[in-house]
Amino acid sequence: MNHVVLTALYGLAAALCWGSGDFSGGLASRRTSASSVVVAGYTLGFLVLASLAVITREPFPRPSDLLWGSLAGIAGVLGLLAFYTALAQGKMGLAAPVSAVLTAALPVLFSAFTVGLPTVLQLGGFAIALVAITLISQPDPSSTAKGLHSRSIGLALLAGCGFGCFFILISRVSPNTTFGSLAVARLASVVVIVALLLVRGQRIALPLNLTPLLVLAGILDAAGNTFFVLAAHTGRLDVAAVLASLSPASTVLLAALLLRERVQRLQAVGIVLVLIAIPMISA
């Protein structure tokens, strides 16, 4: 199979898993704190990835893989905390699209400097995909606070940088230590967020009735990370990152199908653009 097509399939699989995991985590967050959901999901993700590393008899990650994995985990969780803080300020209409576009744009710029520009058709697909991500990330206008705030802009940019750097850093791990390196990344994320919660004096509350959702979120998160690393190792990082960044589309569709949430007109346009961008990027 063509390497670009295989990269696209892995990238889309990562988007599907991450989007579905976000949907499961979002449902759980309605009944307990988001920080508790993140800690539980990331911990389960670590256990799944560590178990897979043992089952597949992967070699223990090299020092460089431990470093890349740890840095990726720290970048990802700092981006997540910045994103949640921006959302808590009621600036969803600003934070979501800004962070989503920057998340996809950073790996594209990184690949342009390290391995050269992709084809003209793929560049067109990237441009359409970035527009699609922006549109799909738009929340319901009735729940969006109006107006701009410099702090919210800064937090959105920080979130996008954190997520984009996670893509770049985790792509540097060795192909033969995928599960182990991803487990290190998740462990680093858990350590950072638990330390911050302890400093703030916040408790981690996990009702037992949320166990199925938390387990599902953790497994999907681990699967999404694995598919993304496979995509990055199979082909270009920019192709993998842009397609994986389409994860909000699956979250929106699941919410519409299972919760009967109304898809906004701009989100519907974004989903259509996704269908146009995917074959262009995979060409």
Using brief descriptors, characterize the structure shown.
mainly alpha, 283 residues, 11 helices
3D structure, described in words:
This protein is mainly alpha-helical. The chain has one domain. 78% of the residues lie in helices and 0% in strands. The protein contains eleven helices and no strands. α4 packs antiparallel against α5. It is globular, with a radius of gyration of 18 Å. About 2% of the residues have low confidence.
Show the helix and strand layout.
Blueprint: H1 3-29, H2 34-55, H3 63-88, H4 92-114, H5 120-136, H6 150-170, H7 178-200, H8 211-234, H9 237-244, H10 247-258, H11 265-282
Helix pairs in contact: 1-2, 1-8, 1-9, 1-10, 2-7, 2-8, 3-4, 3-6, 3-7, 4-5, 4-6, 4-9, 5-11, 8-9
Summarize the structure.
The protein has 283 residues and is mainly α. The protein has one domain (3-282). It has eleven helices and no strands.
Q: Can you tell me the overall shape? A: globular
- Secondary-structure element string: HHHHHHHHHHH
Give the percentage of residues in beta strands.
under 5%
**Distance between the amino and carboxyl termini:** 13 Å
Tally of domains: 1
Q: What is the radius of gyration? A: 18 Å
Helix content class: over 70%
Unreliable spans are 144-148
Mean pLDDT figure: 85
Number of helices: 11
Write down how many β-strands occur, each being a DSSP E stretch of 2 or more residues. 0
Structural class: mainly alpha
Largest sheet composition: none
